[in-house]
């Protein structure tokens, strides 16, 4: 079968909180009649991204077009989760015309691209492109750069230690595999910062890859889909820090869930979250919260110390108004302290 007959798949990657779900939602809302399906995977097992996407309410994107692969990381569960999910979509009576795959923020894209060569799916799908979403503000703040003090400390305690920064490795692997980079959160950057960040990204990119600035992932769908990269046939041009290691694990990162009581107002909660994010090295916060007396559920999202919130939908009458927050950070997060700060 020629690649023209294969269903094109776009892999959307990018570090925790970069704006992947926001971009995928934008694609769904602007699909212009194209039959899309989304496979979404996230780290931490409260399926929040899937919920956000299902609530997009776009007519040609029914809820069953959104497939959630909860808990874990697609790049490590290719055989058990990803390939079967893809096959299920392709075997539907009216299969999608294009599949968008949103990986978790800690996933390495290359193992996923490789999976497209598996005999079970190789003749039916192709990687149209790997779109890497970058949190411009996080790069400008030096989030992924090596911390010279930490390296010095590490070296002082063990001469032989290689400096290895798990954030930087994941971030770089995602860029090394890209066919298109979206420099997102441009609204949070000055013109100078934009050009500095673009320069930094350019130094990591192994090939000539376009970098497009965006706010809230608002990039024309025609730019995002239809790249025709056939990335699965081009693996040698996509180096990875993990090429020699085979599978990677996520021992460098921790995630846990905080059960939340009802809050009297969003502000009380946001103040606590901000305090927790500043006192601890939290990379990502997201969850749904019960605000006493309000008919709507509060969606809370934090990336570093930047916290956003909005009422996303009414609690349904048969639903327990249960507040839950997913917290993600590097290994060693003080779960008890964070729990006490946030939930009281
Ligand atoms: N200021 C600003 N905020 C943004 C932009 N894009 C996304 N956000 C916010 O950043 C937060 C994270 O966005 P998501 O789309 O959930 O990010 P993600 O990459 O899917 O996150 P994970 O799946 O947890 O890795 C949300 O609060 C978004 O509203 C942007 O361009 N500018």
Model description:
It contains twelve helices and twelve strands. By secondary structure, it is an alpha/beta fold. It folds into two domains: 3-237, P-loop containing nucleotide triphosphate hydrolases (Rossmann fold, 3-Layer(aba) Sandwich); 253-343, Hypothetical Protein Yjia, Chain: A,domain 2. Residues 14, 16-22, 42, 49, 105, 184-185, 187-188, 215-217, 284, 301, 303, 308 line the site of guanosine-5'-triphosphate.
Give me some keywords for this one.
Rossmann fold, Hypothetical Protein Yjia, Chain: A,domain 2, 2 domains, seven-stranded parallel β-sheet, 12 strands, globular, binds guanosine-5'-triphosphate, hydrolase
Distance between the termini: 60 Å
- Mean pLDDT level: 87
Helical proportion?
Answer: 25-40%
CATH class of the largest domain reads Alpha Beta
Helix count equals 12
User: What is the beta-strand fraction?
Assistant: 15-25%
Name the CATH architecture of the largest domain: 3-Layer(aba) Sandwich
The biggest sheet, with number of strands, parallel, antiparallel or mixed sense and barrel status, is:
7 strands, parallel
Question: Could you name the CATH homologous superfamily of the largest domain?
Answer: P-loop containing nucleotide triphosphate hydrolases
Total number of beta strands = 12
| Rg (CA only) | 20 Å
Which segments are poorly predicted (pLDDT under 50) over 5 or more consecutive residues? none
What do we call the CATH topology of the largest domain? Rossmann fold
- Any ligands, ions or cofactors bound here, and which? guanosine-5'-triphosphate
Side-by-side strand order of the widest sheet: 3-2-4-1-5-6-7
Query: Which shape, going by the Cα principal axes?
Result: globular
- Structure classification: alpha/beta
Kindly give the count of domains. Answer: 2
Q: What is the H-and-E element order?
A: EHEHEHEHHEHHHEHEHEHEEEEH
């Amino acid at each position: 079968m020629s690649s023209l007959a294969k269903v094109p798949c776009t892999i959307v990657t990018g570090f925790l909180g970069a704006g992947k779900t926001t971009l995928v939602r934008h694609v769904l809302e602007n699909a212009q009649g194209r039959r899309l399906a989304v496979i979404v995977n996230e780290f931490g097992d409260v399926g929040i991204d899937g919920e956000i996407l299902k609530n997009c309410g776009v007519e040609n994107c029914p809820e069953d077009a959104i497939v959630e692969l909860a808990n874990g990381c697609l790049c490590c569960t290719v055989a058990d989760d990803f390939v079967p999910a893809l096959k299920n979509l392709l075997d539907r009576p009216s299969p999608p015309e294009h599949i968008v795959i949103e990986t978790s923020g800690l996933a390495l894209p290359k193992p996923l691209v490789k999976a497209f060569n598996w005999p079970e799916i190789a003749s039916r799908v192709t990687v149209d492109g790997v779109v890497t979403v970058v949190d411009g503000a996080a790069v400008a703040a030096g989030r992924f750069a090596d911390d010279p003090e930490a390296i010095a400390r590490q070296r002082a305690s063990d001469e032989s230690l290689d400096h290895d920064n798990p954030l930087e490795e994941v971030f770089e692997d995602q860029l090394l595999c890209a066919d298109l980079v979206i420099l997102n959160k441009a609204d949070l950057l000055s013109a100078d910062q934009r050009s500095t960040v673009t320069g930094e990204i350019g130094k990591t990119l192994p090939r000539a890859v376009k970098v497009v600035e965006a706010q809230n992932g608002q990039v024309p769908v025609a730019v995002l889909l239809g790249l025709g990269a056939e990335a699965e046939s081009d693996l040698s041009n996509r180096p990875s820090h993990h090429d020699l290691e085979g599978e990677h694990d996520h021992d460098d990162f921790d995630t846990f869930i905080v059960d939340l009581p009802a809050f009297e107002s969003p502000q009380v909660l946001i103040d606590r979250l901000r305090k927790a994010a500043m006192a601890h090295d939290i990379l990502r916060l997201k969850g749904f919260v019960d605000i006493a007396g309000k008919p709507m559920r509060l969606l809370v999202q934090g990336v570093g110390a930047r916290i956003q919130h909005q009422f996303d939908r009414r609690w349904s009458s048969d639903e327990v108004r249960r507040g839950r927050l997913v917290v993600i950070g590097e290994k060693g997060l003080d779960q008890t302290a964070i729990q006490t700060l946030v939930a009281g």
